[in-house]
């Protein structure tokens, strides 16, 4: 794949795009942004903030330990208000701040409703004048992205297990009128028991079959064609497409669409023409292609 670094696995060299490997490195190092607290008081007790275990565009994630206990959670910290930008007008900043606040409140409300074994559970939410603190169960088995980078493609039995768990979680969400909209390898954790947990519902929303969503969001490598084409969509179909891409990565150890040219990459995704490795069986190719076609259609 163009512009990617090769990694070894039991089926030969493979690769993931540099942007995905950079995401793994960013979580390992953590972004150095100032946090106003060292502990979070909640109804269940006080939580002491520890090291940064993840970082993203919205904020960071710190490991937190309950006071006088060994119990741990992952604390997602989101600053209220946008980052200062000298080129941004006051009106634009206010709109950005309002949009961020709505998105964060919606994420907290939606994740509070979700109770599923393969979705990372929310323990508590605290909002202060300057930050949101979301306390999630701590999944200590590592990131799926890190595993793929280190090991390459998964064995068929393991890929089948993970894919079934992802389908179970997505089906649960869709039956409850919730669409994730940012399903990708980076948002899948592996527990110590070897099961997956889907995280980051920051772009999630409620949907209704007779209405259409018009927010075009998500990650490029996993984004459905209708998002790139700025077409309105119901919701579940974009998750199904993303699942097809995730399934391809699990089985093949690389993304199905890649190019050094951004316009060319967009064109490949919009056409939905997947290039399957020669060693992949027809049955697996047809299965992945079927999932992607459902999401595309």
Automatic annotation (TrEMBL):
The keyword ATP-binding applies. Keywords: ATP-binding, Kinase, Nucleotide-binding, Serine/threonine-protein kinase, Transferase. It holds the Pfam family Pkinase. It comes from the Eukaryota. One of its GO terms (cellular component) is cytoplasm. This is Serine/threonine-protein kinase. Residues 32-41 have a biased composition (Polar residues). It comes from Diatrype stigma. Residues 47-297 form the Protein kinase domain. The keyword tRNA processing does not apply. One of its GO terms (molecular function) is protein serine/threonine kinase activity. Residues 1-41, 80-100 are annotated as: Disordered. SUPFAM superfamilies: Protein kinase-like (PK-like). GO terms for biological process: intracellular signal transduction; microtubule cytoskeleton organization. Belongs to the protein kinase superfamily. CAMK Ser/Thr protein kinase family. NIM1 subfamily. ATP binds at residue 76. Transmembrane segments: none annotated. Residues 82-100 have a biased composition (Basic and acidic residues). PROSITE patterns: PROTEIN_KINASE_ATP (PS00107), PROTEIN_KINASE_DOM (PS50011), PROTEIN_KINASE_ST (PS00108). The gene is KIN2_2.
């Amino acid at each position: 794949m163009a512009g990617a670094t090769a990694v070894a696995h039991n089926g030969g060299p493979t690769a993931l795009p540099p942007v995905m490997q950079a995401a793994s490195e960013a979580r390992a190092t953590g972004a150095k942004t100032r946090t106003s607290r060292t502990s979070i008081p909640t109804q269940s007790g006080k939580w002491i903030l520890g090291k940064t275990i993840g970082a993203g565009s919205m904020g960071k994630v710190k490991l937190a330990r309950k006071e006088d206990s060994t119990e741990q959670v992952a604390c997602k910290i989101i600053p209220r208000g946008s980052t200062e930008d000298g080129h941004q007008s006051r009106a634009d900043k206010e709109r950005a701040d309002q949009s961020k606040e709505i998105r964060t409140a919606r994420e907290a409300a939606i994740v509070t409703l979700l109770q599923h074994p393969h979705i990372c559970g929310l323990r508590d939410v605290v909002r202060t004048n300057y930050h949101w603190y979301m306390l999630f169960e701590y999944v200590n088995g590592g990131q799926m992205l890190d595993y793929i980078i280190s090991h390459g493609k998964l064995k068929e039995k393991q890929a089948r297990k993970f894919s079934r768990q992802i389908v179970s979680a997505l089906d649960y969400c869709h039956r409850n009128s919730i669409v994730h909209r940012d399903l990708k390898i980076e948002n899948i954790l592996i527990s110590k028991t070897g099961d997956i947990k889907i995280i980051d519902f920051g772009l999630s929303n409620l949907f209704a079959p007779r209405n259409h969503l018009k927010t075009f969001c998500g990650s490029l490598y996993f984004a459905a064609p209708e998002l790139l084409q700025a077409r309105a969509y119901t919701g579940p179909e974009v998750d199904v497409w993303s699942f097809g891409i995730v399934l391809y990565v699990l089985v093949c150890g690389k993304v199905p669409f890649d190019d050094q040219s951004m316009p060319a990459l967009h064109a490949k995704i919009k056409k939905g023409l997947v290039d399957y490795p020669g060693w992949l069986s027809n049955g697996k190719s047809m299965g992945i292609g079927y999932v992607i076609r459902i999401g595309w259609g």
